[in-house]
Amino acid sequence: MNELKFALKVTFPIFFAYLFLGIAFGILMTDAGFSFFTSIVCSVFIYAGSLQIVMVSLLKAGTPLIIVAVMSFFINGRHIFYGLGFIKRFRESGWRYPYLVFSLTDETYSILCSVDYPKFINRSKTDFLISLFDQSYWILGTVLGACVGNFLPFDMKGIDFSATAFFLIVVINQLQKYKSKIPAFVGILSSVLFYFIFGPEYFLIPALSASLIALIILRDFVNIRMSKVSEDDES
Fold this sequence. Notes:
Layout: H1 2-31, H2 36-45, H3 50-60, H4 65-76, H5 78-84, H6 87-91, H7 97-102, H8 106-114, H9 123-149, H10 161-177, H11 182-198, H12 204-217, H13 219-234
Helix pairs in contact: 1-2, 1-9, 2-9, 3-4, 4-12, 8-9, 11-12, 12-13
């Protein structure tokens, strides 16, 4: 019971974010012609946050699975690096281990990294409950969105912009959080360049690939710049 109360407490801020994003996803799926059941299955077995929202337009457009797979890697590949720091911790959770790996989203990761567990609760059990509650919030939002989407009396055209708006918020948050603006400039430059070279239908994969390569090459330079900015701020 202590673990349950603690997990609810620390995940409560995630509730509203995931609820409304889940609603947007459910509405998008309904508007794209997918069934209520398909929407729920996606949130149960895919559960990838931003990727789920992007996935709707990709599936609706009949995008080849290889393109979907590549985009999935670029959008959610960061979770690989998230997981590396939790391998030992998750393995100690026994049967909960596979689910903890599967459900490690950005928000769950941030909680697990920052939470200070009281001595009287079981950490492995609480990790599991935190992950489970976060996904439950998303699924609840999906259910509501899928239900509402079938009965909304107005035209749903334009709601797919929620994916664009979501990524804009993420970009703005990253710009405010990190000292170096080089990654943002690299991404913008690559996108604009390949948009004009390949057009709106084929620019994304080359742009993502070029950005990844450029940031790997510039990694040390970016770290040095961030260190200098931090030293200047402290002085």
